[in-house]
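Journal club side-thread
Mid-discussion, someone asked how the predicted structure for our own chain would compare to the paper's figures. Pasting it here so we can look after the session.
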Amino acid sequence: MINNIISKKNLIYIFAIFLGIVEKISQVLLFAVPFKAVSIVSRGEIDNLVSIPLSYLNININTSKDQFISLSIVFFMLVIQLSFTRFLKSKVIKNIKIRKFLNMPFEKKKINKKKFDENLLKIEEFINIRTLLIYSFILLLFLFYYDYQITIIIISSCILNYLLTKKFKSIDNANKKKIY
């Protein structure tokens, strides 16, 4: 089973999904790092969350100004990393589409452009859905580690939302059939 998942054909999809997850996590960090920097400056004390990881790199943090500067550097590195990740992800998805285009059977007839575009759009949807599912699962794991009660509430609300949406869609489809 694992050989089927990690086959050469699927490896590029796995890489695109991985890049999507890295992009999502970077976006969250880009949101959180400035808040952490502001809170460090306002408190005026050295935070272990910043000083301990930097001590592994032999960077000594002595003042809150040093922490603010290091978090600013981390912020700019995250911006560069996010830009590079987006660029790389778009290139990988473009290569997947090109490969899909080259593998499509061509007939002597004219190709239906709408169907062709739909096929290429399905690739992006496939990658985005898997990325979002794995990213959400990672967030739920961290949230469960932080507070399991909040996690249970979120999961139960998601299940309830799914069931209600499914019920409303069935009611909507039944009403559409009655109108026609």
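Post-session note: The helical segments are 2-5, 8-43, 48-56, 64-103, 113-146, 148-179.
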